[in-house]
Amino acid sequence: MDLNTLKQFLAVARLEHLSRAAEELRVAQPSLSRTIARLEAELGTPLFDRAGRLRLNEAGKVFLRYVERSLGELEAGRRAVAQLTDEGFGTVSLASETFLTLTGPLAAYKRTHPSVDVQLHQMAAAEMARRLRSQDIDLCAASQPIPGEGLESVLLLDEPVWLATSLDHPLAGRTSVSIEECAEEPFVTTRKGHWQRQLLDRLFAGRGLRPKIICEGDEPGATAVLISAGLGIGLVPDMARRSTAQTPVAWIAVDNPDCRRLLTLHWGADAPLSRAARLMRATLTGWDFTS
User: Fold this and answer.
1) Burial 4-43 (b: 16+ CB within 10 A, else e)
2) 22 part of a folded domain
């Protein structure tokens, strides 16, 4: 059982899909299958259920926790040594669902610390907790709750989320609208996992309804553009409304106090942050996101 085997197991466990894991790892799928089979033989038990879709079984879930912890400790050791040799200042890794909100502080950070290697990773919130535990990212900014213990956090932004419609939509002249009034409207939104979709589903579920979704994608920044074109309506954060390059849409308040976006910065409670990461945290927590 070597380090490469554990890293390959981690990828398969995270994706629960051999071909996608092989593509991510840039290895041949048959080779990856043999690696997992050898690992299971060494442990004396299967780690995955293979009836239908590949799934971690109970033994796999238990082993995964130890692998994440072990790889995390190794990464922490690497960073500790780097800091002792004055190399720890050079890199910081930040994950987020979207970086449109963070362009201001990221640009300011890079101007102040031009020699730092800033690594950005776009991912769903569900993956962030695992990546923080394994310590292969330093910080993450999420607009929805992140599961997992051992994390510290600070709120960066609390802003309203508006209902956006095309300028000629029947609702465009309204100052506010209820969820019930939107029940039959076609929605443009993001895929499951993104915070806009989570918020939309949660607001409708609270009224015993399901939104009528006609477009879902992975580009949150494209939502307002598609709405402006008249393809549907959708939820868009206040930051987009305040943008100097805002798309021409009508902005309508949603009559629900939970229709808000909470952007929170997270990091591992027990993970030693490099100087570069601490400076990034200070930049983000000190930034005025409402200006």
Assistant:
1) eebebbbbbbbbeebeebbeebeeeeeebeebbeebbeee
2) yes
